[in-house]
């Protein structure tokens, strides 16, 4: 039996490294990682997901409804690992369709600029991958 309820889903606020969880139905939830490239680019905002909470309390069939592409996978990965308290309908545990909003937020003004600069510095330290062998090499000019 699958019950279709419109639930005001939870919102996870990722605020520059500190996490505030706001959800009464969650049994356990690890906050999403904020992708370094997205932080360096100053990308933030909500990612809205839709899925089904199984009878065991796990999110399944997760799909992205909206949100910045750079943040979508981090939101899906996080929500995939969350555990919800079982939903009961007339005393029976049931699957429930739900919508989840994961908010990525670096702050505003100087706080956002500082977080973005910090992420850009971290990103600059990441080694660049070597060119693949499939990449055509530039011919060496003849002398």
TrEMBL record:
* Domain TonB C-terminal positions: 19-113
Q: What are the alphabetically sorted keywords of the record?
A: Cell inner membrane, Cell membrane, Membrane, Protein transport, Repeat, Signal, Transmembrane, Transmembrane helix, Transport
Biological process, per Gene Ontology: protein transport; siderophore transport; transmembrane transport
Q: Which GO terms describe its cellular component?
A: outer membrane-bounded periplasmic space; plasma membrane protein complex
Gene3D superfamilies (alphabetical): 3.30.1150.10
Keyword Repeat recorded: yes
Superkingdom in the source lineage: Bacteria
Which protein is depicted?
Answer: Protein TonB
């Amino acid at each position: 039996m699958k019950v279709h309820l419109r639930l005001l889903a939870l919102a996870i606020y990722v605020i520059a490294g500190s996490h505030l969880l706001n959800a009464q139905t969650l049994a356990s939830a690890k906050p999403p990682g904020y992708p370094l490239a997205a932080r360096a680019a100053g990308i933030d905002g909500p990612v809205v997901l839709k899925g089904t909470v199984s009878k065991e309390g796990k999110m399944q069939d997760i799909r992205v409804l909206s949100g910045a592409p750079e943040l979508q996978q981090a939101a899906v990965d996080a929500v995939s690992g969350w555990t919800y308290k079982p939903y009961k309908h007339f005393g029976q545990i049931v699957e429930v369709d739900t919508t989840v909003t994961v908010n990525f937020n670096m702050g505003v003004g100087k706080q956002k600029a500082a977080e973005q600069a910090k992420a850009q510095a971290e990103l600059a330290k990441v080694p660049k991958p070597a060119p693949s062998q499939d990449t055509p090499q530039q011919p060496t000019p003849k002398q």
